[in-house]
Amino acid sequence: MLSLIVVIILSYLVGSFPAALLVGKYFKGIDLRHYGSKNMGSTNAFRVLGWRLGALVQAIDILKGVIATLLISKLFYGALPFENRTPFEDITVVQIIAGISATIGHVWTIFAGFKGGKGINTTAGMLLSLAPIDASISIGIFVLVLVFSGYVSLGSIAAAYAFPSTMFIRENLFKVDIDGYNTLIYFSLAVCIFLTYNHRGNIKRLLYGEENRFEKWWKVRWIKIEAPFKRRLTRNK
């Protein structure tokens, strides 16, 4: 029990590492919480700090999920303090717990008043560690949506739901035997709901056509995404 508590606490602290805040202060002398969307995720870092520093923040945030899932989980020893009803070995369950703890730390960081990012990158690091093929496909979906729409938030939400969808298609249509599929599919759906909740403000802005685009990353412009709520309000005027 004690080793599991240590894993949870250390994973949370690693996830809490405020990369965007520290990179902004060290390289630009600014507090990212007072600029742009005031969020400490990589999207705001890209927008305010530029692509190089934004990429650095993103890499660190992804690495947090990888470190917690693959390294800190190894500190666990003994048996789980609860019955393992999953098809996974105990250490895999601990890896999932460590990854979740890191994501929680990123979203509610103890080092910045419990206000961090939205958890996409740290979750990506966790999922890359657990299911690299499915996570890689999801990242590809993110890139495609970003290129066709210019919206990072829309790409993030699409990627979140692409992960369980990819697992479902590979397992049930292509008959790929995914270890622990019946557990991972429900776990990933829960992650989708969590990430969707964190993007609720972005979803509202998307519906009303008020979400900010990354114009430089919007490469394919022959597909125009309309704001349904804004269009409806316009018709009623």
Break the fold down into its secondary structure elements and pairings.
Elements: H1 2-16, H2 19-28, H3 42-49, H4 51-71, H5 90-107, H6 120-130, H7 132-149, H8 152-172, H9 181-198, H10 200-207, H11 228-236
Helix pairs in contact: 1-4, 1-5, 2-4, 3-4, 4-5, 4-6, 5-6, 6-7, 7-8, 8-9
Structure commentary:
The C terminus is likely disordered. This protein has 237 residues and is mainly alpha-helical. Helix 3 packs antiparallel against helix 4 and helix 4 runs antiparallel to helix 5. It has eleven helices and no strands. The chain has two domains: 118 residues, no CATH class; 107 residues, no CATH class. Helix content is 66%, strand content 0%.
Structural class call reads mainly alpha
Mean pLDDT: 92
Give the percentage of residues in beta strands. Answer: under 5%
Uncertain ranges: 233-237
Q: Which quaternary structure do these chains form?
A: single chain
Order of helices and strands: HHHHHHHHHHH
Question: What's the count of strands?
Answer: 0
Count of the domains? 2
Q: Which descriptor suits the 3D outline?
A: globular
> What distance lies between the first and last C-alpha atoms, to the nearest angstrom?
62 Å
User: Helical element count?
Assistant: 11
Radius of gyration: 19 Å
Helix content: 55-70%
